[in-house]
Amino acid sequence: MKINDKRVKVFLNEKTTLGPIIYWMSRDQRVEDNWAFLHAQELALEAKQPLVVVFCLVSEFLGATMRQYGFMLKGLEEVESKLKKIHIPFYILLGDPPDELEKFTKKIKAGAVVTDFDPLKIKRNWKETLRKKLNGAFYEVDAHNIVPCTAASNKQEYGAYTIRPKIHKLLPEFLTEFPKIKPQAHKIDFSFSEINWKKIYSSLKIDSTVEEVDWITPGENAAHQALKDFIKNRLHGYDENRNDPNLDGQSGLSPYLHFGQLSAQRVALEVSKHRSEHRKDVEAFLEELIIRRELSDNFCYYNHKYDSFAGFPAWAQKSLNEHRDDARQFVYTKSEFEKAKTHDELWNASQRQLVKTGKMHGYMRMYWAKKVLEWTASPEEALKIAIYLNDKYELDGRDPNGYVGIAWSLGGVHDRAWFDRPIFGKVRFMNDRGCASKFDVKGYSKKYSV
DNA sequence: ATCGGCTCGCGCAA
DNA sequence: TGCGCGAAGCCGAT
Question: Could you tell me the CA-to-CA distances from A50 to A20, A37, A45, A247, A325 in Å, in that order?
Answer without folding.
Answer: 5, 13, 8, 49, 63
